[in-house]
Amino acid sequence: MSWRISAGLSLLAAVVFYASTAPRAADEPKPSPPGHLVALMDYDHAFQNSLRYKTELDQLKAGTAKVENELKAFHDSVHKLEEELKALQPGSPDFIKKQEAATLKQHELQARIKIERTKFEQQRVKLETALLKEIDQITKQVAVANNIALVLNQDTREQPLRDLEATQQHRQRRVVYHNAGLDITAIVLSKLNDSYNEKANALPLPAANAKLATPAKQ
Description:
Helix content is 64%, strand content 5%.
């Protein structure tokens, strides 16, 4: 009985050994070698100089111009009430009435300013979040295509060493020296702007001076 168990274990070991050493099938994909290169990128430069950020931020600011004018007119009406109070006798019925109206308008103005500021910040966060995701995606594509395993974020702007804060930041920088050939900022920014232009060109243009179709005669 024991010799049968030993024989069975020997056979099982042989099968496992053969499976681990057997050659791969010709059509079985082999794992690609991992990336080994390191690159640098000025992330903030790509962000600030992308056409999408500049264009959509300008559009967002332009959309707030109407709201700012409305708030200014509201502020002027509050200021007018405050000026009218100066001509009234403090404690009189008219004074109390206008004072209450001015206080209510002041509270309403502050509430509207807070609401509009929050709305603007939410829209800007939405814009920046979408852009950040796109930059990350394009950076990954460039890295994979060029066998890059690691992309470091490096501020390439020259910072004058004028004070202690600047010298401290200089000492704590992540990259002390790099070859200019390792910087992929221009590549990422170019692809980012090309992508934006392609999407913008794909949008239908509004017809200028379009004529209304003439209804068919009954």
